[in-house]
Design brief:
3% strand; ATP binding; mainly alpha; transferase; Transferase(Phosphotransferase), domain 1; protein serine/threonine kinase activity; elongated
Length: 132
C-alpha cells in the first residue's frame, strides 16, 4: 500500500474507515479504498441514498466518526435486490481493509461477471413469426 499523504482529501461519504484513522503514522491505503467507494456508489445508485451519513454534512461525518464507526451496512426493504448483489456490496463495504477485496478481485466477483443467458428461440415460433 501507500501512505495517505493529504488530510481531508476526497469526499467523506465515499472514503473507507481507514482514511479516518488518526495517529503519528498515516494509514496505509491501497486500491481497497476504491473498492469501498464503488460499494458506496453502487448502493447510492440502487437505493437513492448513501449507506453511511446520508443526511450529514462532511463536517458532521468527520466529527461524529460516522464512517470510522461504520461496522456494517444496512439495506432498505425497497427496492429488493438479489442476494448476490447484496453480498457484493457487503464485500465492497467490509469494515476491515483486510476483509475487503481489491479492485481486481471485486471486478472478478460473480455478481460483476454474471451474464444473463440469452433465451434460445423456439424454432416453431420463429417460423410462425416469419410467415406473418
Amino acid at each position: 500500500g501507500m501512505e495517505l499523504t493529504s488530510q481531508g482529501a476526497g469526499t467523506y461519504w465515499y472514503l473507507p474507515p481507514e482514511c479516518f484513522e488518526t495517529g503519528p503514522a498515516p494509514p496505509k491505503i491501497s486500491s481497497k479504498v476504491d473498492t469501498w467507494s464503488c460499494g458506496v456508489i453502487l448502493y447510492q445508485m440502487l437505493f437513492g441514498r448513501r449507506p453511511f451519513g446520508h443526511d450529514l454534512s462532511q463536517e458532521q461525518i468527520l466529527h461524529s466518526g460516522t464512517i470510522r464507526n461504520a461496522q456494517s451496512v444496512e439495506f432498505p426493504a425497497k427496492p429488493s435486490i438479489s442476494a448476490e448483489c447484496r453480498g457484493f456490496i457487503q464485500r465492497c463495504l467490509a469494515y476491515r481493509q483486510a476483509d475487503r477485496p481489491d479492485v481486481s478481485t471485486a471486478a472478478a466477483d460473480p455478481w460483476m461477471t454474471y451474464v444473463k443467458p440469452v433465451p434460445t428461440p423456439n424454432p416453431a415460433s420463429a417460423a410462425a413469426a416469419e410467415r406473418e
